[in-house]
Design brief:
Blueprint: H1 3-17, H2 30-40, H3 45-58, H4 62-66, H5 70-73, H6 83-100, H7 109-112, H8 120-131, H9 140-149, H10 158-168, H11 174-187, H12 206-214
Helix pairs in contact: 2-3, 2-8, 9-11
Amino acid sequence: MTKKERYAFVLDYFEKHAPNAETELIYDNPYQLLVAVILSAQCTDKRVNMTTPAIFEKYPDVAALSHATFDDLFPLIRSISYPNNKTKHLIGMANMVMEDFNGEIPSTVPELVKLPGVGRKTANVITSVVHQQPNMAVDTHVFRVSARLGLTTNAKTPLQTELQLIKNIPKDKIYIAHHWLILHGRYICLARSPKCGECALRPACKYYKTLIKAS
């Protein structure tokens, strides 16, 4: 199977079986999504969704968050990984949005990455989820699944993975392909014990092919 055929097989499967895939983070607007994504680094979406309601109740918008103090915000995210840094990032992010972006969450990757706590992955999530821009956020799931399936070749970094994926995925499908790959990695193509027996992508999967050869 050529790489082009592999991409076609994988994308066709997901289009048919997960046409409405979306983030599992719970949010109502770009501000809430940005807060949730910043908190989600090295943390599960489930834990983030348990934590954000109290934050959004106390700080319903970015203006309110910009007035938060460390001592007020920290207790609300104590259960999240790296709470010290994330508390500082959230307050810094809110202040920069108010001062530099007139209180509006930026809508481009170059602008978003200027914000404290926002790297390329987070910026790609915001722009693809909120605005359906053709940006591919690469987390550990996307990195692993892409390599195992054979969608990427010798990609050593998230950026290399991102560039290979956006080169081969039709532009109008990139924003949702991000969710397809994440969810597949979260529930089927697990890091330690992938559920190959349940996976419908086996015919296109390089990893599974090596398992067959080894058995």
